[in-house]
Amino acid sequence: MRAGRSVSGMSLVVDEMPDLGITRLSRWIFNCYVLRSGDGAVVVDAGLPRVAGDLAAALGRAGTLHAVVATHGHSDHVAGAAELAARHRAPIWLPEATLAYLDGAKPRTPTLGRAASIWPTMIDQPLDRRGVAGFVSGAWVAGYGTPAGMRWTGPPPGGGLVDGQSVPGAPEWTVVTANGHTDDSVALWNPTTRTLLSGDAVLTVRGQAWHTPEIVDAASAAATRKRLEELPVAHLLPGHGRPVHAADTVWAQQRR
Ligand SMILES: [Zn+2]
């Protein structure tokens, strides 16, 4: 079993997982991941508007930024993507369903009551003021989650992520449709290291996986749960919450 090394400088948490080739950067509940691949890296969920600055050191070590990828179009997963992509001249890839929102289709988003239901994850990590401020301002920068629908001021995305395809720039990762939280959610799966980047489909609380109760569609959430639990996940890296590592699978000890 590997153990991540966490460094809390200021309030940015940098969690190095060298065995997995992954760095997690987090402010409060907002996780952003650097996946090393080949001669460079892919960033997943550049969600806070100024995350490019937080990522500078990790990306400096990683080499070329091949792509910026999002697990869904909520602002806390895309608001930093345009600045990061511009700085590194990298393409942005969004889920295929998110692209329709850029064209004006109205996304469904969880109600405030549903959003509040994830409070156990919110109180599980120390509050970071810059994370909160970034979350609030990010809603005005890009993405959806407010009645205004999807905002986008970034460049046209490089393309749409579809189920079963490999992640652009990180071919050891496969895109898995993971709807329920939203209608445009994907997870990323690495079968070699048995690592799942679950986006917001699965959160974590106190070292346990937690299928999110913050959903727009119960039937697709149930289908996602079934599909993801068929994967022998040893390392769960959620959109919100600390990573969970298990000797067997993370599903054995999950929060019910
Ligand atoms: Zn989120």
Automatic annotation (TrEMBL):
The Metallo-beta-lactamase domain, residue ranges: 29-240
Pfam name, any one: Lactamase_B
GO molecular function, one term: hydrolase activity
Recorded superkingdom: Bacteria
Coiled-coil boundaries: none
Listed name of the protein: Glyoxylase or a related metal-dependent hydrolase, beta-lactamase superfamily II
UniProt keyword annotations, A-Z: Hydrolase
